[in-house]
Every structure is written in C-alpha cells, then in structure tokens.
Specification:
The protein is mostly helical and 596 residues long. The chain is 75% helix and 0% strand. It is built from 32 helices and no strands.
Length: 596
C-alpha cells in the first residue's frame, strides 16, 4: 500500500498544479452572488465571513488546500469515501473556485450514488471550465442518475461544440437518444461516428437495433448488407439477412444466402431447416425432404438438432394434415429416427404425435406405450395415452392406463377426468362421480375445470342426484359462461324435471348461439319449447335437429311426441317407429305403437 501511495503523490501533485494554475490564470473571479447553493438546500459558506478566508496563491492556506486535495484524492482512490469527503470538503472550503476540487467532489458523490451532490459540484466545475470534457461528462453521469435526460442531451451537445469529433461523446449521445426513444436521432449520431471512423460492425449493429424498434425492415437489410461487405463469409450475418428476406417474402434472395451458408457448413441445421422451409413454401417437397432427410440421417448431427428438425416438420404437418407429400416427408424423418435409435422415448413420443395427426390410433397407442415404458415420468405421454384410448372408445383400456399413470403422476386432473369420463360412458356412475369429484378438487384452469364440473353434473343427473347435479352445472357455467355442453345439458335436465323452464330456455338459446348446428342442442331447444307447451316452436327446432343428419333415436322419439301433441297420430307413430328401429332398447315405444 505504501508503494502505491508513493507513486500516486506525483500524479496528484501534477493534477493539483495544473488545476491551480488554471484557477490562478482566471480572468474573472466569481462574486458571492455567483456562488451556487449547496446541495440539499443548504447555502454555500460565505467566504467573506470571518474565519473562512479563501486561500490566495503562494500562501499557507494554498499549501493546506493542496495537502487536503491530495489526501482526498488518495482516499478516493483507496476506496475510503469517508476520509475522502473530509479532506475534499476542507480543500473546497479553501479553494471553492478550483475546478479540480469540485470535480473530485462530484466523483466522490457519484460513487456514493448521491446524484444531487454530484450534479452540484460537477455543475460548478463546468461553469469554471466549460470546455473541459471530463468535467462535463461527470455532470452528464450525475444528471443521468437523477433522471434529467433532457439536460443530459443538452450538455452532450454543448460538449460536442468544444469537441466536435469526439467519439466517446458521440457514442454516449447516440445511446442516450436511443434510451429516450429517439431512434432516428440516435442513428444520425451513429452515422456521424461511421463518417469519422469508417465502417464499423458494432456501430452498424447499433443502427440495426434502432431500426428494429422503428420496424424499418428495409433499413435493417441495408445495414446488414453493409456489414456483409466487411466480412462476406460471416455465417451469422448471412443467416440474419436471410431471415429478414424471408419476412419480406424475398425467398429467392433468402435461398441464395442460405446456400452460401451451406457452402461453408454443409450441415448447418438452421440453414438447412430454413432452406427446406423455402422449398416447402414453394411446394418443392422433394427438395425439402432431401435436405431434411440428409440432416436427420447424418450421424455427426446432434440428436437435439435432429429432434428439433423433426418437431418443426410435424408442426408444419399438423397445420396442413391433408398434404400427402408433407406427410410422406414427416413419415420418412420419423422412421429414420426410430431406426437409428429405437429405445429413445422422445423419438417414440414424436412418432405418436405423427400418427395422431394421421388418425392412426393403433400406431399412436403403440408409440405412446413405448414412450411411457422408456420415460415413465413423462406426464404428457401418459395424458396423451389416456386421452387417445378415450377418443378411440376403448374405455376399459382408458381406465387401466389411468390407474398405471397414477403410480408416476398422481393426482393429475387431466388423467382423473378421462378415467372418470370412461367410467361414465361404461354406465358406472358411482365410480365416475368419485374420479370426477377428485379431478374437480385439483388446481386447473377455469375452462378445463368447467368441463370437469359439467361432466360431473351429467353423472349426478344420471344418478338422479339433482341437487348435486345443479350445483355442478352452476359452478361449471360460472367458471366458463361459454361452456355450451354444460349449458345445453343443464337446460335439458331442467326441462325433463319441468322446473325453471324460463332459465332452461335462456341456457338452451345461449348454447345454440355458441354452436348453432349441433343436433343435440337443437333438440334441447325444441324439447324446452315442448315442455312450455309451444309445440309449433318445438317442431321447428326438432325438425332442424333431424335435418343435420346427426339426430339420435331420442330426437326421433321427441318428434313423435310433438306430432302426438299436434294431433297427428299417424306422423307420431311414424317417428316413434323410426326411433325404435334406430335403438331397439326403447321397448316402451311398442306400447305406443300397439306392438305386442
């Protein structure tokens, strides 16, 4: 520490000598009226008061001021702000008009994050020596800390009148302009720097950042072309420029740049995928497939990159599932992955996704089983397995898969819901109510909880637990007022019980607003009108339900009931017979039809 102090003293003495010389040569001495107020509202000490004489050159006071100044700077350098503050304030009391002392105090208070104090002293230093760049930069830092951004820009502009070609000042101004949202002015300043320095990649990228905030794609492309001139083989620049060309639908230019990337790195994943995407957009399926298949089959390419590529193709395929050529490409990629790594759970998950898109439930289930075997903690795979069994109508298998899933991902609302739904469709209502009640008690997003509760309402309705059913339906509709199934089913069961028929009518109308072509919803609306005694309206809606082509035996029976009320027994018998033909379990209709 002693060595460092010894080396520091000559430097500080030189600074002091220079600043004192500047002070002594000043042509005008500020008067008491010119002195600024002390920070925090305290007036600056009046140097005309007794006991506070200002040091004069060549006196003992000047020597004392020099000593305090050096000690203050030394303490500041040694990270001792308390000692620095004591000595610098003593130096300032003796030499308040010395810019170096004011600058040192400004630096001290800036390091202490006392921006008001820093601004006070740096402003004084600037007043005493306005052309000094470092004094003004200190003022800029203090003002920036105080959030006085307009004044920051003012002082930067002033500094540039003294130092018009100073790169640091220009760069600081450009960044400050950008931070204030004046991106155009910032880019003009960056252009001044380029004019002074010549082409510079970093400055061009700063201009690109501003242009991106201005949504000026053409200007970004222009800047990237300038960068490319500096380094024509830069892969990152080629890729970035190609991406902007793609956004502007300049696919030929983008393809040309991507081919340049591939000349330098034939297996560059991003370039291959983007070039394949261009081929896909141009419906050049063979070229796209060739590029991607070569990449996925390359043992040098990492598995993570291969999975990313195949996932990308599957995403495209899911948005265009009728595209046979895209399906063929996706199929080849998935098969290649499976062949190369048959025991990878993620690959089997992707294969399952592919077969779900194609509607091949059997293959999807095969790969989902392999996924859960290889990755038993993969909750998404278990959910997809249970859901796929449910969609395929394999309710026993749904329940079995759900029970196995409980071992690895217990208390999963999604799993519990589908198991409960499977029990419901197997007419095992008590078991269904248990699983669905458990699902409803778990955290889930409001729309999904609404579906769970709506289904629970259906189960309780099947058990004639009407209070529980009503509670479940009410909560389901509260969570999601647009749950059309819950609205419809609640309306239907209210009409069956001939209670709250006006509420049932409003719910049935709302369900139809949400899904106007649904045969069951049309029938519910008709049945509510039937219970209200409006048989013409009932006929209108039930007829519309039948005309959808999706009417159930129950709808056909309802049409017979309507004609019976309208006094047309022949037509009533016709529709009852059609209902019985469609569903032979409706044996009670034989009595209406006078069939032994």
């Amino acid at each position: 520490m002693h060595v460092r102090f010894t080396l520091l003293v000559p430097l500080l003495s030189a600074i002091l000598a220079a600043t004192m010389t500047l002070s002594a040569c000043s042509s005008t001495e500020p008067t008491a009226a010119d002195r600024p107020e002390h920070p925090h509202g305290q007036p600056a000490p009046d140097r005309t008061q007794p006991g506070l004489p200002e040091a004069r050159p060549g006196t003992g006071e000047e020597t004392m001021a020099r000593t305090h100044f050096i000690r203050g700077l030394t303490a500041l350098e040694l990270k001792d702000p308390e000692r620095a503050e004591v000595h610098l304030n003593r130096a300032h009391a003796l030499l308040p008009h010395m810019p170096g002392v004011n600058y040192a105090l400004a630096r001290l208070y800036l390091e202490k994050s006392d921006y008001a104090g820093s601004v006070f002293y740096s402003r004084r230093a600037v007043e005493l020596e306005p052309e000094n760049k470092w004094y003004r930069m200190m003022l800029v830092d203090g003002l920036r800390g105080s959030g006085e951004y307009r004044e920051v820009l003012h002082h930067l502009d002033t500094a540039l009148t003294y130092h018009p070609g100073d790169i640091q000042l220009l760069y600081t101004r450009a960044r400050m302009q950008a931070s204030q949202g004046d991106y155009e002015a910032s880019n003009q300043t960056y252009q001044q720097i380029l004019d002074l320095l010549g082409p510079d990649r970093a400055i061009h990228y700063q201009r690109i950042s501003n242009f991106s905030r201005m949504d000026d794609t053409d200007a970004i492309i222009t800047e990237l072309l300038k960068i490319l001139e500096l380094d024509q083989g830069n892969v990152n620049t080629l890729l970035m420029l190609s991406q902007f060309y793609l956004e502007e639908e300049r696919t030929n230019e983008a393809a040309g740049l991507l081919e340049q990337v591939l000349q330098r790195n034939p297996q560059h994943p991003e370039a291959l995928v983007n070039l394949a995407d261009i081929h896909i957009m141009n419906e050049e399926w063979d070229k796209a497939g060739e590029l991607l298949l070569g990449l996925v089959g390359d043992p040098v390419v990492s598995l993570s990159n291969k999975l990313e590529i195949v996932q990308y193709v599957l995403s495209r395929f899911s948005h265009d599932p009728d595209n046979q050529q895209l399906q063929g490409t996706a199929s080849m990629l998935v098969d290649t992955l499976i062949t190369d790594d048959p025991d990878n759970g993620m690959i089997h998950a992707m294969a399952a996704e592919f077969h779900i898109i194609t509607g091949d439930g059997e293959q999807a289930l095969h790969h989902l089983h392999r996924t859960t075997e290889l990755m038993p903690e993969n909750d998404a795979a278990w959910r997809q397995l249970v859901q796929t069994y449910y969609i395929e109508g394999m309710y026993e298998e749904t329940i079995d898969a759900g029970l196995r899933a409980e071992e690895f991902i217990p208390q999963d609302a999604f799993i519990l819901f589908f198991v409960g739904g499977a029990y419901f469709l197997k007419d095992e209502y008590e078991e269904a109510a248990k699983w669905l009640s458990d699902a409803a008690d778990l955290p889930a997003r409001a729309p999904f909880r609404s579906i769970i509760l709506g289904t629970l309402g259906d189960v309780h309705a099947s058990l004639d637990n009407w209070d529980e059913a009503d509670d479940a339906y009410e909560e389901a509709i509260t969570l999601d007022p647009d749950n059309d199934v819950a609205l419809n089913n609640y309306a239907y069961y209210l009409s069956e019980r001939e209670t709250r028929l006006d509420d049932a009518k409003q719910m049935a109308l709302r369900a139809l607003e949400l899904n106007p072509e649904n045969a069951a919803f049309l029938d519910t609306m008709g049945w509510v009108y039937y219970k209200l005694g409006d048989y013409e309206k009932a006929h209108e809606y039930i007829r519309a339900s039948i005309e959808t082509g999706d009417a159930s035996a129950e709808v056909l029976e309802h049409m017979g009931d309507v004609y019976d009320k309208l006094g047309d027994p022949d037509r009533a018998h016709y529709w009852w017979q059609k209902a019985l033909d469609k569903d032979e379990t409706r044996t009670y209709l034989k009595e209406r039809l006078h069939i032994n």
